[in-house]
Structure formats: C-alpha cells, structure tokens
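Figure S4 source data
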Amino acid sequence: MADSSQRLVEVKGAIARSAGLAGRSPAEVTLIAVSKTHPASAIEPLIEAGHRHFGENRVQEAAAKWPSLRERHEDLRLHLVGTLQSNKADEAVRLFDVIHSVDRPSLVSSLATMDSRGRRPDCFLQVNIGDEPQKSGCAVADLPALLESARAAGLPVVGLMCIPPAEVEPAPYFALLAKLARRHDVGSLSMGMSADYETAVMIGATHVRVGTALFGERE
C-alpha cells in the first residue's frame, strides 16, 4: 500500500487532471489534508513532503495534536472542517487559521469578538445543500440572512462550504453551491472530499477536504 507521501502525489495529480478538464489551473485549488483521528506521526511525512494545509474536525483533538507541530513548522495552515460549538469559539480562533463551518447566528455572535483576541481566521459559511436534517449547515433559504449578519459582525467571510448527500451524484449540489456563491459575491468554495473531490474541482472548488485518500482508512 502506498504511503501518505505517495498518496499526496496521486491526489495532486488527480486535482491537476480535473482542473485541466475544466480549463482551470491546479494552483486555484487548495488541498486540505484532513488528519482527524490520525497521530502526528502520520502527519509528519506530508509536512516533510512540503504540504502545508491541514484540517481537523474537532477543536479538542486539534488542541492536543497541533501546537507542537506548529512550533516546529511555523508556516502550516490549520483548517477547522467540522461542526463548531459556540462555547468552543474562543479556542477555535486561537488554534485555526480558517473555519469552514459557520452555520448559525449564535456562532456568528460568538466569533464576532475575534478582533479582541488578535486573530481573524477566514470563515466559510456552511450550507446544508441537500436539506438533510441530520447535517449541520444553514438552509439555502437562510443563507442571505446569515451572510448579512456575518458581514455586519465583521467576520472575514471568504466562501461557502457544503457536504452533499451521500450515495447520490454530488455534481448538482456542487453546482448549486457555486451558483449561490456567485449570487452572493463570495469567492471561495470548500467542497469535495475523498470520494468526490475530482468532481468538485471540475465544478469550481477552491478548497477540497481530503482525508482517507491521503491517510488511508481510519483504524
């Protein structure tokens, strides 16, 4: 089985092919290596291979794992890609450079004081693109109000994020997110994971969140 550094080469190659098919440059796509549940020893080979963007699902896990890694590698960029509880907002702002899961007014309010903490992580608004009750994200119909409140609160909103329904063709959902981003003048799209990142790139993803395809199955 290929190690993570070889998988990194393969995933980057797939991104380049998909971008080329869409007439895009691979440089337009940020690959986020989602290292949830994987130890620092599994992350180090990707860092040594030159990769710098990593993602975690949980604030608590990131707090235990990343400070020591970042002391040794100051140019790393850490992305929160999982649900963020409002009571973890302070810690998330201290830990992460980008938050992909802003999805409700209460979280906007909790993050609105980030200036006083001396840090301003970029923010993506998460949209429940398939209207699935078990998933986080604001409803499509609620996006304009959430975006307005986030901008009014001074959050640096850079894009939209989604997770399409499982086991169905993801392209229509990615296309809808891209349409919403254009409509609301939002530049970045965080969409696509291990099973569908190539499709996402062809439809305009600027950030793909890839875990299993890089690290292998979680034990």
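Figure S5 source data
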Amino acid sequence: MDSPRYRAFLSYSHRDAKWGAWLHKSLESYRPPKQIVGTVTPRGAVPKRLTPIFRDREELASATDLGTLLNEALRQSACQIVICSPSSARSKWVNEEILAFKRLGREDRIFALIVGGEPYASNDPAHAEEECFPPALRYKLGSDGNLSTERTEPIAADARPGKDGRTNAKLKLIAGLLGVGFDGLRQREQRRRQRQLFMIASGAITGMVITSGLAAAALIARAQAQRQTVIAKREAETAKQTTRFLVDLFKISDPSEARGNSLSAREMLDRGAASVEAQLAKQPEIQATLMDTLGKAYTGLGLYAQAKPLLESSVAKREALNPAEPAQLALSLSDLGDLQTWRAEYPDAERAYRRAIALQKGLSVDQRDDEALAKSLFGLGDELAKSGRSTDAEAALGQALALQTRLIRDADADVARTLKADSAKTLQTLAWAIQERDLNAAIPVMQSAVAMHRTLWGTEPHPDYADALNDMGLLLRYKGDYEESEQLLRESLAMYRRLLGDKHPEVAMSLHNLAQVLELEGDLNGANSTFQQALAMQRELLGNVHPDVALTLYNLAWVIHDQGDTHRAADTARESLAIYRKVFPDDNTDVARGMTQLGYMLTQAGDYSSAATYLQEGLGMRRRLFGSSHPEIASSLLYVAILQVATHDYPAALASAGASADMYTAGLSASNWKTAAAQAVSGAALAGLGKYPQAEERLLSAYTVLSNDGGALPMYRKLARHYLEVLYRSWGRPSDAMRYAVAADSSASTRVVVPAVVGSTR
C-alpha cells in the first residue's frame, strides 16, 4: 500500500480503554533516534514521528459489519496493534477488526500487546476464561477468506508485570512498526536517555532550590528509614517473642501432673488462648500475630466459637498499630473472612475480604504478596458462591486462578507444589460456581482438580484430596452415576475421618452427601440414619441456625416423605425453611427453594390452600432474583402446575406446565429431562381436560425421556407413571392403567435432590 494515512490501527475492548489511551499517547509522542530517521526498512523510510495512530472507537456501526469509516481506516493503516486481554478475546468487534485487516493481505503486520490473561489459555477448558488472544489472532486466514484451523504465533509484546514491562513492550511495538531491530532500538534509547539525564544534571543550578530539595529528600529518607527501623525491630521482636511463647506453650510446668500423657491439640490451643492476652498485654503486634495463628488453628478444628474472638482481636490490634502494617492487617482480615464464611456470616465475610484485597492491591510492587492476594480473592469467590452469587464468584475465582497460575510458573519446585494445591482448591470452588449454570461444563473443571491432587498426594491422605474426591462424587451424583458417586464419597469420608477425627463439619457434610446417594439408590432407612448422624453433628458444632443444618433438614424431609410420613416431612421442611429465613432475611435462592419444597409437601398432604401460598411466594421470590425466565422459575411453575392438577384446575395447570417447559427448553434444551418433567404435567392437564390422545402422546414421550436419562430424578419418572395410570383409567383402558401403576415402580426416591455448595469447597 502506498502512503498509508495511519501508522497503525489500535484494536481494543472498551474495558481496556486506559491501555488504549496510554499506548496511543506513547506512540504518537515517540521520536525515533535521529541516527535512524530516513533509513529505509521493509516498512518504508523511518519517519520523524509515528503519527497519526488511529484509535477512534466512537465510529463503530450499529449493524453487524464494521462500518464504512472503520473499514476505510483499516485499509489506510500500515499496521495493526491489538491490545490483548480476556475482554478483547471475547470482543466481537476486536475479532472482526483483525479479520478485516488480515483480508487486506497484511497478516504479517499485526502486532499484539498483552496486558492481561494468558495466550492460548483456551487450550485448557479449566482456564479458557483467561484467554487473551481473540480467535482471529490465534488462527491463520484461509484461502477462502475465513479463519482456518492452522494455528499462528502473533508477534507479541508483553506489558504484564514480570514480563517485558511497559517500556520494553512499547519499544518492541515501535520496532515492529518501523521495521528495525528491537535490541538496536533499545540500546539507542538507553544511550539517548543517559545523555538526557547528563544534560539535566549538568544544567541544574545550585543554591536554595537544590538545598531545599536536598533537605526535603533527606527528611523524607530519614522518616522512611526510621519507619523501616521501627518495623524491622518490631518484626524481630515478634519473631523472638513468638518463638518463646510457643516453646513455653509446649512445656509442662509440673511433670508429675502430666503422668506421661501427651496434650491434645485442643488442650494446647486452649492453653495458648488463655495465656496470650495476659502474657503479652504490652506487645500488641506480637499478640495480633499469635491471636491470628491460634484463631486459624481453632478454625481448622471446626471450633468456630473459640476462633472468633481471637481473629477479631487480631484485626483490631493490627488496625491500631503505628506505624501501620497493611500487609499484615490484610492477612488477618482474610483469615477473619474465612471464619465468617464458615459461620455463614456472608455480608461480614465479604466486607473483610474486600478490605483485605484493597489493602493488598494498594501495596507497592516490592511489598505486595501475590500469594496472599490470591488467597483473599479465593476466599471472596468461595463466600460469593456459598451466598448464591455464582456469577460474581466466577469472576473472583478467575482472578485468583490467574494469579496462582503465574506464581506456579515462576516458583521453584517446593513452592510450586504448595501453589498447585491452592490452585486445585480454586478449581474445585470454580467448578461449583459453574455447575449452577452448566453441570457438563463443571465436571471437567472438577476432574482437573482431582487429577492435580492425585499428582500431588498419591495415596496419602490430605484434606484437599478428600475435598476433591467428595466434590467429584457430588457432581457424578447430579449426573446420575450413583454407583461411582457412592464409591468416591465413601473414600472421601474415610479420608476425612483419618484427618479430622469423627466430629468435624467436614465429616458431617460428607455424611450428608453420602445419605443423598443412599436415598437415590433406594436405601431410605440407611439415608435417614445417615442424615440423622450428620444433623446431630452439625447442631453440636455449628449451632441450630446455620445453612448446613437447614440443608440437612431439607433433604431429610424428602426421605421422611418418601417413607410415607407426609405430615412429619412437612414439619421438617418448615424447620428447614425457618432456619434459611433467619440466615438469609432477604430474597435468597435457598429460601425460595425451601418455600417450593414446603408447598409440594403440603400439596401431597392435601392442604392445598397453604401449599398455594408457599408456592406463589417462592415463585415471586425467584422472579425477583432471576427475572422473567430462568430454570429456577421453571421449577416453581412446575410445582404450581402439580398443585393445579391436584385441585383439578386443568386450564391453569396446562398454562403453568407449558410456561415451565418453554423456560426449560430455552435455558437447558428441548430434550432435557427437566423439560420432559414439565411436559408430563402438561400431559396430565390435557388428560383432565378429556383430551386423551394428546395427553397420551405427551405423557409417553416424557416418560420415555425420564426412563432413559441417567440423570433424571426418580421423582419425575414416578410422577409421569402415575399420570399415565390416571389417564388410562379415565380413558376406560384399565389394562393399560395396570401397566403403569405406581405400586409397580421399584424406584424408592420420589423427589428432587438439591445440589449443595458444600463445606468442602472452601
């Protein structure tokens, strides 16, 4: 192309506008070294200035093409620079701009500036969200003008911390635009900078200005030195006193009293907690460190009531220190957030994590601890997932995972092992957040976590390994693979007990998860007994008002219902809902689900008026939470339709079931078993209206799907079978009715099992 109007065309996502503004200004203000101006390169003669650079993002067309003005700007640009980040990788416009430039035959004139994410991260589904290269940058253009399947390696400069840095990244891009060597350009820039510094230094005048400047600098340096001296002395004294405290803690003051017995971990912690306040009252920084350590130990043992005052005191004491230690305060806040998440104090936990993250991000580069920042981001993601905000959770966990991945790459073998364990835990929690919208997408993420733990620990027991086995078992249960699910959950439970003893919140939740699989396999007595064990342990360790207690009651209510005691099942469901309402006073998915369960129980008990109240309240809450169309709303409409069939309001039932089926089709698929369940209820409504042939066609189709889909829950298969029996009896076909009699159904479980965000996904 002759005489291009623009030196380069900048392509970037609006989310990267700050990078676009910086790069535009940096390029247009750059003056190539005089020695190379006029030199002829493959890009033409080296100019005095790199102007103009096109970055006008306000001219985008509203249609699907790039618009006449933008295409013309691309055509008149000598090169293209793509600012690469996860946002730009997902941007349709950035991708289209790259394609358009490649179709001009200038594929070799495209340069990438990496500002976030990871190149080719999309090769691994677990890290796909970190991809920073748009598809058009990753693949070559085919002869037909479309992207081929052949990979390409774009010329890239990396402005991320620890990579090229801004200055070198800018020079790499300039070297590409000019067609000169990067090393030569960088050396010329260094020499030019040295000359500039020399001229500035030699041209400076002496006198009061210099004296004042030096005095100010000296004062600042002195203040900084004094502050660092105070902190250094404090840290040294903290280490000394901490060591002395721990040594004293393990001493037995009266050997005759010990009688050869060893102290338990709980006894050691109790001794430490009792003495830390009295012995170190005049040394708050040491107290804060020890309180944080003891509080974390109590948390690890599931002794949350004992941990709370220690961790809260640690935060308070570090807030009062002068000079402040923001890095240490952030650690204490993050540890307090962990405890508050376990105690289901979600708003408090979120505030603690966000304060910690803000402090950590505000530290200078030499003070920042990215591993600690990743821990805080992980904690925030875990808290958001447990409080039902899965989309926000995915974002926080993605940031944590990106940090951990970078740290692993740069770490030595021993440190990398610890970081890989943390990364695997992040993958587990991320899988739980993803499963809220897509179970099939969550399973490979969880499999990656399990594989990572197996590589790390082999056959040795480890809490993180037990967590991963437990979580994989849960996802397989939701998929309908009950046999493998039970095997993994029992293996996990045994490992938990070896590691944590017989009483611990993790052990209780593992029992809860195993009970659900026993129920689905038809062992109702075993499920009831196992749920009761979990419930007793949770009440002892967590108190009566806790979401884990509410969840166990919720699922125990279904087992009791399946065993035939409808009224006791409804009472248990009421107890579960009451706890959820105390824990989550505002609109919440667990509260809405509890209302729906109780409404169904009351439908089965024949209390239709009360059932309608709870079902409509739950439906309203879900609409406020999810909008007008969502699978959760489809679930509520399905239960409403079941009630309407029971009360013979067949036109309303047909409308409710139809709306439910449409939402399931849109949110899941037309062939999903949940869509089939809604179709079964609409078939029952048609039967009630006397439209027997239509009802038969719909019910048989739904029953086939529910019988053949391994993930379909037995409740819905039994429900469809019952509706078929009623249809044929009403139609005067008793022999067909007998074939579908519910009594002949060997499936014992008759309800929906709710996926839980369990304690193992910390």
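The first helix runs from residue 17 to 28. The radius of gyration is 32 Å.
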